[in-house]
Amino acid sequence: MGSGRLYTAVAAGGFRRYATYRVATAAGVFTNTVFGLILVYTYIALWDEKPHLGGYDRTQAITYVWVGQALLSTLAIGGSRVEAELMERIRTGDIAVDLYRPADLQLWWLASDLGRAGFELIGRGVLPFLFGALVFPMALPGAWTTWAGFLVAVVLGMVVSFAIRYLVALSTFWLLDGTGVSQITLLAGMFASGMTLPLNVFPGPLGDVVRVLPWSSLLQRPADVLLGEAGLWSTFAFQGAWAVALLALGRLVQSAATRRVVVQGG
Amino acid sequence: MAETVERPGAAAESDGSGTRGGTRARAAVGLRAYGLIIAMWIRSTMAYRTSFVLTAATNFVTTGLDFVTILLMFSRVDVLGGWPLPEVAFLYGMSCVAFGLADLVTGSMERLGQRVRDGTLDTLLVRPAPVLAQVAADRFALRRLGRVMQGALVLGYALTAVDIAWTPLKALLLPVALVSGAGIFCAVFVAGAAFQFVAQDASEVQNAFTYGGTTLLQYPPTVFGRELVRGVTFVLPLAFVNWVPAAYLLGRPLPLELPGWVAFMPPLVSGACLALAGLAWRAGLRSYRSTGS
């Protein structure tokens, strides 16, 4: 119970910390809205050409765009400052201090990242989504259970996203410079989460592959829950399985890394 | 207080104010400083050659993702907004090369807000070189050539696949439009940096116009709402980067039914944008008050 309070406090700290960047948040809302507009028009052109592409109708495709803009920074699809900071701590050797804390390294950073994600959902995600709903016709569910299911899928997406980025950050123990892996994460995140194009539009075997990769938990699956295109429990099971597997892998890599840790400089 | 933020270049500036020679001399000083700083960063980049090759390659792949998205779309449809793939690739290539060149030359200006916040801009103010040249050349990233190369490849493919009735005038328009387009994007970068003097924490707003702008231009104008097309033609004239000249080259009607001669406007539009951005930059720099930290 004591440790539960600790991680709640860490999460609250993460939330508050990102809440202080008010101008940056407003700027982010503006940018997400502009990108949403550009994407919506290209999707409309695409769906005008081929109605029911990927099983969505036009309004579902429009809704998908705004869900994507709401979740882009929330689920850190292109990466976030949290793992960038963790990488910097590993590179400089400050991580040694973290290892001496009477708290679990992975849970600590997970809590902090969940706090960040929570703020970005409210601070950066909601407004572009509302803008989209006001200006364009959207396919929004009426049942509150669907909304609740969507929120659960988003939270599970947060955990999967963190688990991926934690592994990316740990690679710094071996590579020392994380720029390359960060870029690859960005690439995989944008492409395989369905951010640039819904995964059900991807043709043939490529589509089959991207739909089972962990990144599909980030945008495609929560969006499908909201659009009523996927079952709640099968979605949760898929996301949960990836979350558990990736977090466990993170633990393994973490113990391997800390056993060989050589603290840089001082 | 005001003295500490006064630009050292200001004295030299007033020497030649009003005379053409003075302006030209100042531009020469700026270009020379820009060249020297860039040469320094290139040397330091080349100290880690493998790292440079890897980051340039990653840049190439990352920026190519946009085109992969377009290819995926065309795996499902034959035309988008009435434009077939080779013509969309032509738009994409032009936008990507112009933006890539601008990003190479002035992309570092994105970080101005950071410099204002942490006070490191002061270091640049006390050096005897124009601040604009220093900020633009700061951490010059040669790896950004990756985007230019990627755009050039797509443009090369498009040129072999589209059907253009070439005339000497049209052949001249293409390179002129690319350079002018780079100028327009440079102006957006400089104006965005000027805005960061005021809103230090708002570099993302700039992304909406730079990265958002290049993404917008990768798709045919027919895809977008008329109001949006009007906005990027008359307010922020991004349409002159590729939509307007490309429509003319491809023998399509110009956006907003503009007359054909408008296709030759990009150099003028680009010059006007750069002049306005320069004014905005000067106003921004004058309003700068150091954090003192």
TrEMBL record, chain A:
Keywords per UniProt: Membrane, Transmembrane, Transmembrane helix
Taxonomic superkingdom: Bacteria
A Pfam match: ABC2_membrane_6
Cited InterPro entries: ABC-2_transporter-like
TM segment ranges: 21-44, 64-82, 121-140, 146-168, 180-202, 230-250
Keyword hit for Kinase: no
Protein name: ABC transporter permease
Organism: Streptomyces griseoviridis
